[in-house]
Amino acid sequence: MNKIISRITTNNQICGGKPIIRGYRITVQTIMEFVLAGTPTSEILEQYPMLEQQDIEACKAFSLMI
């Protein structure tokens, strides 16, 4: 749980308060849309080079919590 909390945050001034990844303007929802569409992790990381594989795993775990 702490790993998720350290990677997934909210800030009312960024993306309207939606859950985001490590303060970047990338929402959990955006990443999960890629995941659910079957996009390989390697392709997501290529499109968002600032992210790490652990960020994607945190998004998956977070989506199961809500």
Topology summary:
Blueprint: H1 2-7, E1 8-9, E2 20-21, H2 28-36, H3 41-47, H4 53-65
Antiparallel strand pairs: 1-2
Element pattern in H and E: HEEHHH
Query: What share of residues are in beta strands?
Result: 5-15%
CATH H-level superfamily title: Winged helix-like DNA-binding domain superfamily/Winged helix DNA-binding domain
What is the helical fraction, as a range of percent? 40-55%
Keywords:
mainly alpha, 4 helices, globular, 66 residues, Arc Repressor Mutant, subunit A, two-stranded antiparallel sheet
Summarize it.
Helix content is 53%, strand content 6%.
Explain this structure to me?
- This protein has helices spanning 2-7, 28-36, 41-47, 53-65; strands spanning 8-9, 20-21.
- It has 66 residues and is mainly α.
- The protein has 4 helices and 2 strands, in the order H-E-E-H-H-H.
- The mean pLDDT is 94.
- The chain starts with a helix and ends with a helix.
- Helix content is 53%, strand content 6%.
- Helix 2 crosses helix 4.
- It has a single domain, classed as Arc Repressor Mutant, subunit A, CATH 1.10.10.
- The chain has a two-stranded antiparallel ribbon.
